[in-house]
Amino acid sequence: NDGMVNINQRLTEIFLHSISASFPGLKGKLPVSITLNQNEKFGDYQCNSAMPISGVLKAQGTKMAPRQIAELILKNLPSSDLIDSCNIAGPGFINIRLNVSFLKRALSDVLVHGVRTHHSKGECGKVVIDYSSPNIAKEMHVGHLRSTIIGDCIANLFEYFGHEVLRVNHVGDWGTQFGMLIAHLTDMFPNYKEESPPIGDLQAFYKQSKKRFDDDPEFKKRAYSCVVKLQSGDPDFINAWKLICDVSRKEFQVIYDRLGIVNLIERGESFYHNLMPPVIAEIEKQGYVVVEDGRKLVFPEGSQFPLTIVKSDGGFTYDTSDLACIKQRIFDESGANLIYVTDAGQAAHFKAIYSVARKMGWYDPQVTRVEHVAFGVVLGEDRKKFKTRSGETVRLAALLDEGRKRCEEKLKEKGRDKELTPEEFKAAQEAVAYGCIKYADLSHNRINDYVFSFDKMLEDRGNTAAYLLYAYTRIKSIARVAKVSREELKEAASSFYDDDGLPLEHAKELKLARFITRFPEVLQRVCDDLAPHTLCDYLYELATVYTEFYDVCYCVEKDRKTGDVVKIHKHRLLLCDATVAVMDQCFKILGIKPVHKM
Ligand code: ARG
């Protein structure tokens, strides 16, 4: 058993088979596409290939009406346990109705084996995903928060599909700013080698040193010499650099701990320091380097905007480190999927890096998938750049604090502080607060700018984590309220499994079942587009379809007068279980921690 069937993919294979058999001359020329049926009444899926096939045939001098083509496709369709029936509508649309006994079995399978999907593309290669990536000594801002949330979700998704995933935090730890930071450090804490300097506020420290750098030419000169000593590996300077990085690292870690970000390994720009000179030499050897005003430049294919790989003072740049980095990820890490998650402002940078890497022959885009996952800017409710009231940039810790506070107020409004134990309350408060912040980000198409609004994200109606988390706890409580034990349900599930599967009959039961079986194809789409909002849309719609079912299909029937339980529909309780199982997976991929009580 290899998990849930990707129905769309399976249907595509079946239709492709028939089309190739029907029109051997068109082999490989037509992408067969199966889509969800626009109208539930006519079928579950549809295949609209007859029209384009007719066009291609016509161009080859054969006249055949799309309807005739559709008929031929159906005639040659291999038999499948998935399909109940097909019919042709309009000019040649093929409606496909799924087999109910397939649905019953599929749901039964989810209950017994859990929600598992396997990657459709067979052997899956290693993923190297670069996300979060804040800069040492500077603050981690909302852009880095987006990168952290989106990157973590995509990494979870690939892991869920069975890929090996390397999560890399490409921190900015090697820029020229370290010269002034080290010079300032040695002035402020001459004792730094003996006792670790008590830098409480690294951002303030950064600002002070920047001010000195800008105002004092003497200091500036020293700062430059510090960079040279640092980059040449002088142990004292490396030591000072490490101390500064440590302070930043601890601050970042607090944010990661709160958001539940794990397995993200720090491998900053400094990691590539020794890899840069050979990469530059390699590019020079290929004859791709142009020298201009003492700088060494490389022009990406068809672009006038060069990358600077060596500055006029001999130093390296962000471009240089990213070239060394991509090569390292392809050759040393054997990455088959390289993903970079940053704001859309860096799109040109990555486009240029990828282009030069291809020109150097480091990878073939047919074999290695290299993608920049770009996202828009975070805006305030006034649709301007996200700032505090006094106009300063918002610190992430303060932002998370505020989310927690707002959530606490909301839960108290609902009287939850009286119903839950203090531990349960705290768990609910954090899960909802961080869940809402993550979900608000993930549920928007990443490429757009998005408006950060606590009011909207904490609303318990609509497409928010608050709504979904409530829905989840409610569904989970149904069996508990019905006083049907886990063991009893487990037994029922396995006896249905040994029989014909879950006995689904009611139209709303079947609708929910169909929706659940779409999970693998939805995940595949998220994986293809690297667009988490598609998963959020699915999760929200799942909750909606579930509500439609729950409103009309009673799980437990009670006597109106006495309130005694008259009948328990175990298969419906099990359908609730299957819904919960899919929701669980969605939350896991989205990085949201559901609570059992809230
Ligand atoms: N540190 C960079 C920034 O804050 C992001 C780094 C992204 N990763 C990379 N390989 N360039 O903008």
UniProtKB/TrEMBL annotation:
Residues 468-598 form the DALR anticodon binding domain. Its EC number is 6.1.1.19. InterPro entries: aa-tRNA-synth_I_CS, Arg-tRNA-ligase, Arg-tRNA-synth_N, Arg-tRNA-synth_N_sf, ArgRS_core, DALR_anticod-bd, Rossmann-like_a/b/a_fold, tRNAsynth_Ia_anticodon-bd. This is Arginine--tRNA ligase, cytoplasmic. It holds the Pfam family DALR_1. Residues 9-98 form the Arginyl tRNA synthetase N-terminal domain. Belongs to the class-I aminoacyl-tRNA synthetase family. SUPFAM superfamilies: Anticodon-binding domain of a subclass of class I aminoacyl-tRNA synthetases, Arginyl-tRNA synthetase (ArgRS), N-terminal 'additional' domain, Nucleotidylyl transferase. Keywords: Aminoacyl-tRNA synthetase, ATP-binding, Coiled coil, Cytoplasm, Ligase, Nucleotide-binding, Protein biosynthesis. SMART domains: Arg_tRNA_synt_N, DALR_1. Gene3D superfamilies: Arginyl tRNA synthetase N-terminal domain (3.30.1360.70), HUPs (3.40.50.620), Isoleucyl-tRNA Synthetase, Domain 1 (1.10.730.10). GO terms for biological process: arginyl-tRNA aminoacylation.
